[in-house]
């Protein structure tokens, strides 16, 4: 008899997350030099890590035979100070993805429901499936989360509502008023999760930390993977009221945030110049893509994050054809958006190369 029969069925049923295509893999398959490949597929920071973060890691390297501080004292203290919260509000994760998993670990079971938007970040659905919970999808007209509709969808079995703000892959934001309205309707048996992976890119960010300070059942997710350029280290965090944070702390591995990640994050946080350079690059890049798409008559979703969703016809074909020319974008068929691709904003040179290659391959796509 197959061992599959004895494995956890929820795990066996899972369709694995498909990440952006790695540069090394692409180089191997196409016989290209890794340096010649432009990857705009995973919303990474093309400027790299902050120089101060690299220096902190170099200093830390000789000490990695020692286990990390499992309590993450220095980094959690710095985060608490930055946001005017207490140490008890901060939970570190192996990327904010781990906090998503911890939330599901702590609050889901086969009788529970998780609510998210139709075009939400796909990890929520994977995690709901992993824990056998019911995944409830609420339509998002014009690609904007309908948080009133999400509040309407809450039942006695709902345990988690995920609001990605801004959302990936749509790049759209829900404003303060709508969030306040949603929070006014949040019943005691539900945790609201605000996934703010792109928070640093926002000019006019809604305040969700006030809900944490008010002691509401919320968890705000942030990460060092995007604006801070530390995606490879896997370091993110949740900011939550003590009654939520203390449950998450119990579920995590003792050393889930590694020592290199902790020192690099601490250094990156203090490097305001690197963040400013990143935002300047991103704003210029977003304007560049908007103009390029408009000139070509391509529909796009105006974005406040570091990526942009554009309608190209056959997204998979465009992805494959651009890949052959060494530019990696992200096809969106996994998000039920087969006509769209998502392009991360890179450096000026990367963005220009991307549009050049797009121009080379678009006619072929349009004619099939
Ligand atoms: C990138 C991303 C994350 C998390 O990334 P980590 O690298 O695990 O911190 C979380 N949520 C959304 C919506 C994202 O796009």
Describe this structure as you would to a colleague.
Belongs to the class-II pyridoxal-phosphate-dependent aminotransferase family. Histidinol-phosphate aminotransferase subfamily. Keywords: Amino-acid biosynthesis, Aminotransferase, Histidine biosynthesis, Pyridoxal phosphate, Transferase. One of its GO terms (biological process) is L-histidine biosynthetic process. InterPro entries: Aminotrans_II_pyridoxalP_BS, Aminotransferase_I/II_large, HisP_aminotrans, HistidinolP_aminotransfase, PyrdxlP-dep_Trfase, PyrdxlP-dep_Trfase_major, PyrdxlP-dep_Trfase_small. Pfam families: Aminotran_1_2. The longest helix has 24 residues, at 272-295. The chain folds into two domains: 3-48 and 273-367, Aspartate Aminotransferase, domain 1 (Alpha-Beta Complex), CATH 3.90.1150; 51-270, 3-Layer(aba) Sandwich (Aspartate Aminotransferase, domain 2), CATH 3.40.640. The mean pLDDT is 96. Helix 5 (96-107) runs parallel beside helix 6 and helix 13 packs across helix 14. It has 368 residues and is an alpha/beta fold. The termini are far apart. Helices cover 40% and strands 15% of the residues. It is built from 14 helices and 13 strands. It is globular. Strands 2-8-7-6-5-3-4 form a seven-stranded mixed β-sheet, sandwiched between helices. It has a four-stranded antiparallel β-sheet with strand order 9-10-13-12. Pyridoxal-5'-phosphate (PLP) is lined by residues 43, 95-97, 121, 164, 168, 195, 197, 223, 225-226, 231, 236. Pyridoxal-5'-phosphate is lined by residues 43, 95-97, 121, 164, 168, 195, 197, 223, 225-226, 231, 236.
């Amino acid at each position: 008899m197959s061992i599959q029969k004895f494995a956890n069925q929820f795990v066996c049923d899972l369709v694995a997350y498909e990440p952006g295509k790695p540069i090394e893999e692409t180089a191997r398959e196409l016989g290209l030099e890794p340096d010649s490949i432009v990857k705009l597929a995973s919303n990474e920071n093309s400027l790299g890590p902050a120089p101060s973060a690299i220096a902190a890691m170099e200093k830390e390297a000789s000490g990695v035979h020692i286990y990390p501080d499992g309590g993450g004292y220095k980094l959690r203290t710095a985060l608490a100070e930055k946001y005017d919260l207490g140490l008890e509000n901060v939970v570190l994760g192996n990327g904010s993805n781990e906090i998503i998993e911890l939330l599901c670990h702590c609050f889901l079971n086969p009788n529970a429901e998780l609510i998210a938007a139709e075009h939400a970040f796909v990890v929520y659905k994977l995690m709901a499936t992993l824990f056998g919970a019911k995944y409830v999808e609420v339509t998002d007209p014009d690609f904007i989360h309908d948080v009133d509709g999400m509040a309407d969808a809450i039942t006695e079995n709902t345990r988690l509502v995920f609001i990605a703000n801004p959302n990936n892959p749509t790049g759209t934001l829900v404003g303060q008023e709508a969030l306040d309205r949603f929070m006014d309707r949040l019943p005691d048996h539900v945790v609201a999760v605000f996934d703010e992976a792109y928070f640093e890119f926002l000019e006019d960010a809604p305040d969700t930390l006030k809900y944490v300070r008010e002691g509401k059942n919320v968890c705000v997710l942030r990460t060092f993977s995007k604006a801070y350029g530390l995606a490879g280290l896997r370091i993110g965090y949740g900011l939550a009221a003590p009654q939520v944070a203390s449950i998450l702390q119990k579920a995590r591995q003792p050393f889930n945030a590694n020592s290199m990640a902790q020192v690099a994050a601490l250094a990156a946080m203090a490097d305001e110049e690197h963040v400013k350079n990143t935002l300047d690059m991103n704003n210029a890049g977003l304007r560049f893509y908007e103009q390029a798409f408009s000139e070509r008559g391509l529909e796009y979703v105006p974005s406040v994050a570091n990526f942009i969703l554009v309608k190209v016809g056959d997204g998979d074909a465009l992805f494959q054809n651009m890949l052959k020319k060494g530019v990696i974008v992200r096809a969106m068929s996994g998000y039920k958006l087969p006509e769209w691709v998502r392009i991360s904003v890179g450096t000026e040179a990367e963005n220009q190369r991307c549009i050049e290659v797009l121009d080379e391959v678009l006619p072929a796509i349009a004619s099939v």
